[in-house]
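Translate sequence into structure tokens.
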Amino acid sequence: MSATFDLYPLRFRVTPRGTAPLTPNLLRGAFGSALKQLNQDDYRRFFAPSSSSGGPSGLADPPRPFVFRLREAHGIDDRNIGMNVFTPGTELFIRAMRLIDAFEIQSVEGTEPLRLPLAGDSHPVNRLRIHFLTPTELKGADRPEFGTLLARIRDRISTLRQLYGPGPLDIDFKTFGERAERVAMTRCELTHVAAERTSRATGQRHSLGGFIGSAEYEGELAEFIPYLEVARWAGVGRQTVWGKGEIAYETL
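Result follows.
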């Protein structure tokens, strides 16, 4: 059986209880407070994981097993909240969402697992365009060169599987990266967005900025399409839990 990446695409239909706009940052904070109220151990495992609690060696800030999606086809819609969960046991996440005072949940969809294959098919793909829908920040890179982008996606998928799923990717990371580096960027139209948040708990400032826009690539791309499909759900780069790093793609 080929490797997969499994997730639960939870979709909440809600009725807001106030007039203040619901941002990913506010939603993330409210969800963390609700999860902490339910269970301290689950809070530490899912909302505030650390390398000392079983994360991969050398990873100071392990990824959370979820991302929020507030974007809709025609802009922000605070009556629909998406939450992609990368670990079994969605009941806990739904219970925590029901404790948030900002809205009342009317219905929940997406409680069945979505299983995404990680093996490409034999159909060749030679050109594609990637859209960076929310600010994206790749460590050590100002532009989304394909090799860098796929390395970050590969590492995120493997780490999420290691922490919350069946285990890390069983692939040759080096040769995967070398093949990705042979893909050329042929067009790049980006706008850099500056934004930040201040933690109430620590007073530290965290960047919520990055680049948005699109980039086009050319090369042997078929094997990378499944990884881009996972990244469409999981995001890529820094602060994905705040809604950063949301992408879409299309073949050309």
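Note: Helices lie at 24-38, 40-47, 90-98, 146-164, 173-181, 225-234.
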